[in-house]
Amino acid sequence: MPERILVVDDEPNMLRLLKTILGDQTGYEVMTTNNPLEVSKLLQEDHYDLVITDLKMPLVDGIDLIEIIKKIDPGIPVIIITAYGTLETAEEAVQKGAYDFITKPFRKEAILITIRRALEWKRMQGELAALKKQ
After folding, report:
1. For strand 29-33 and strand 4-8, is the pairing parallel, antiparallel, or unpaired?
2. What is the pTM for the complete model shown?
3. Among the residues of the chain, which ranges form H helices?
4. What is the DSSP string of 95-121?
């Protein structure tokens, strides 16, 4: 079963780009939304292995979205992508539970490596939890 990624960005061009990068060559199943208010509903209705979100969006920004996501699924890694990256914002995102923080423009290889690492981290967390139950 392919790993499922939810991409949240208010820019349709960025959603298309990420869906192309992640879906065509990697085998990931990618769902996109340009409405951050839908994320809660999408996560409650279906399982996702990873969320990638923009930082600056109307209605709900990426930092607030991390908190929403973590309340629904504390174990899901969240990667923030932004054109407005500062050290302070990156630190805040990681403190709120983001797995990583990537600035635009990004190289395709860099985002794919970050995604692979985040998904591997999630798998290892699952294995650790299973071992602790034994």
Report:
1. parallel
2. 0.92
3. 12-19, 39-45, 62-72, 87-96, 108-133
4. HHT-SEEEESS--HHHHHHHHHHHHHH
Torsion of CA 93, 50, 16, 19, to 10 degrees: 150
- Contact by Cβ (8 Å): 38, 63: no
Angle between helices 87-96 and 62-72 (to 10 degrees): 10
Question: Which one of 3.40.50.1110, 3.40.50.2300, 3.40.630.30, 3.40.190.10 gives the CATH number of domain 4-133?
Answer: 3.40.50.2300
CB 6 within 8 A of CB 51: yes
pLDDT tens digit sequence for 34-82: 999 999 999 999 999 999 999 999 889 899 999 999 999 999 999 999 8
